[in-house]
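Take one protein record:
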Amino acid sequence: MDLLFPYAVVLYFVRNDDEMCGGTVHKVKELWNYTISKVRSYLVPYIIFAFIFSSSDSIYRTLIAMYGSRDALVMAETRTALWFLPACFCASLIYKACLLIFVKVKEEIMDASLFVVGIILSWLCSRIDIGIGYPLSINISMMAISFIAIGRLTRKWCMNLVKKPKRLMATVALICGIISVIYV
């Protein structure tokens, strides 16, 4: 079970890059509309489930859960798996913002850069302990951005190289899963 969870999370980010971050945005208004849709998709369910699963007798615990880190969820005595929703929100929003900011940069170069930068920032976050964790699981979002970027890179590469990209994507996801198990 310890190996299944990290692998499943990595596979989610590698395979769902199009659903999370598909398409580019060309205007700030489009990014705003995208942000609103992701608030509805990720943060509203997070708030609802954090409230339902926390000890609803305490407003304090519910407010702690709104911080969005795994450690805050432990303190709020709610389901710790909820960290995934704010992490998805942050990862998709940061990635989409990078697509807007670096619109003139070739996507392959941006994806490769985000892969490396995401790993470095995730490593730095793991070295800096702030007690209750990072808000909205932003530290985990950094690694998720790396997996989204590698998913986009390998998908483009697979489409040009292999007729059956799912087999190659599964191999890449397996490799990323092994990396995440070693990293975690």
Q: What stands out?
A: The mean pLDDT is 78. The longest helix spans residues 28-53. The CA atoms of residues 121 and 127 lie 10 Å apart. The chain is about 75% helix and 0% strand.
